[in-house]
Amino acid sequence: MTFRLVQNFKGGRALVVMERTGREGALEPTLAKLGVSCEAVPIVDGRAQIDLASLTPDRDMLFVDGDLDGVLAIELNPLSQLPPVPVIGLVGVEAPSRLKALVNLGATAFLRKPVHGGAVYSALFVGVNQFLLRGGMQERLQTLEERRRGRRAVLRAVVQRMRDSGLDEDGAYDQIRRESMRVRQSLESYCEDLLSRRARPPDSTGHTGTPPLHRGDKRAM
C-alpha cells in the first residue's frame, strides 16, 4: 500500500487553543491563504472548551499553545499513541517539560512563536502527513497481527482435522478450505469458529440431542 502525501489543505479547519496576545502572528492569515478556516477555541478557567469527539481527522487539526499548562487533555489511541486529529504544537518557551506536554498530546509538528507566515505550511505539511503515516502504519500492523493470530487458528484446526479424519496435512487443509468457501467465510475466521465450537463444554443435562416429547407430539413407534 503506497502512502500518498497530502499537499493541499483547502477545506480544512484549524482549531487554535491559544490566548490572543499577538504572538499568534501570521498564523490565521496564512491558514486563510491555504484555504484553511481558523477558529479560536474558548478557554475558561484555564481549560479549552472543545468537544474532541466531534472532530473529524479528514478535515480538522488542532494548534495547541505549549505555554498554556494543562489547557487540554487528549486521550490518545492506545495502539498508535495518536490523538483524534493532527496536533501542531505552538512553542514559545522551549522548556523540556512544555515540549514533553505537547508530545504527550500527540503533536506531530511544531511552530515557533511568534508565528511567521513562511513556517506555517511546512508545519502543516509535516504535522498532517506524519499523523496520517503513523495511523496507516498502525492499521497495517493491526492487520498483520490479526492475520498472524488467524494463521495460528488455521494450523490448530488442520491438526485437529488430521487427528479426527486420518487425512494428511494437505488433505485436511483442502477440506477445511472448501468448507470455508462453501459458507463464504475467510479461512481464518472459519477456523476460529471451528475451534470455538470444539471448545464448547458438553451439554450438562445429559440430553443426546433428541428433544423430549411434549403433549400433542406424534411419533412413529
From TrEMBL:
<dbReference type="InterPro" id="IPR036388">
    <property type="entry name" value="WH-like_DNA-bd_sf"/>
</dbReference>
<dbReference type="Pfam" id="PF03861">
    <property type="entry name" value="ANTAR"/>
</dbReference>
<feature type="region of interest" description="Disordered">
    <location>
        <begin position="196"/>
        <end position="221"/>
    </location>
</feature>
<dbReference type="GO" id="GO:0003723">
    <property type="term" value="F:RNA binding"/>
</dbReference>
<protein>
    <submittedName>
        <fullName>ANTAR domain-containing protein</fullName>
    </submittedName>
</protein>
<feature type="domain" description="ANTAR">
    <location>
        <begin position="134"/>
        <end position="195"/>
    </location>
</feature>
<dbReference type="InterPro" id="IPR005561">
    <property type="entry name" value="ANTAR"/>
</dbReference>
<dbReference type="InterPro" id="IPR011006">
    <property type="entry name" value="CheY-like_superfamily"/>
</dbReference>
